[in-house]
């Protein structure tokens, strides 16, 4: 079970949004590379990065910051936001990304995603971001008519490394992960699922260890880490099984 710390990039800085609204950005670090090193030093083994500007504009905008992150950490990095072509995917993988996350293009051109999985096995994840149960695209600015499970099933057997499922209505507001929908998705497909959006406290970390959640690959944490609501040492120790959750949390 992996806990992915998140670095969301806006105008070259490390920020967090509320409900995907760019106008609500809170700057947490002016130096994303330093933040990447800090997460590595805290014991995290993966890094989740999103180019927020790129998600809205359909092309990489914070490329320099991402490259600085790749140089600053030895941890594998997954990147989403504005990656829409095979050439773009290949270019980022050549720079050292562990995997790319395809969101909007997964809705617009699922065949491109399948071809990417064929060309770059194990290095392509699909980001499914939903509001009210329907998939959103273009940096969450547009709604589609697709349901979450309907979209996910399009990629069964294609070689997708993971599905990153974000409940937009919970993202950045510390409301707790939407466990019901996340586990429903994980039950519906064979592709590993990563929970995203709303992770709020150590209670969510404990919830990750419950039997029905163990099928997940992990979860992404942003604001709760930056605000100090989750202690990295405690969280990673619970997930590794090296320490017991606080009394009462397993009741």
Please explain how this structure is put together:
The chain starts with a strand and ends in an 11-residue tail after the last helix. With 251 residues, it is an alpha/beta fold. Helix 1 packs parallel to helix 3. The longest helix is centred in the N-terminal third of the chain and has 10 residues, at 32-41. It has 11 helices and 12 strands. Helix 8 links the parallel strand 10 and strand 11. An 8-stranded parallel β-barrel has the order 1-4-5-6-7-10-11-12, surrounded by 6 helices. The chain has helices at residues 32-41, 52-57, 63-72, 86-94, 104-108, 110-119, 148-153, 179-188, 202-207, 223-226, 232-240, and strands at residues 2-10, 13-18, 21-29, 47-51, 77-80, 99-102, 124-131, 134-137, 142-147, 162-167, 193-196, 218-221.
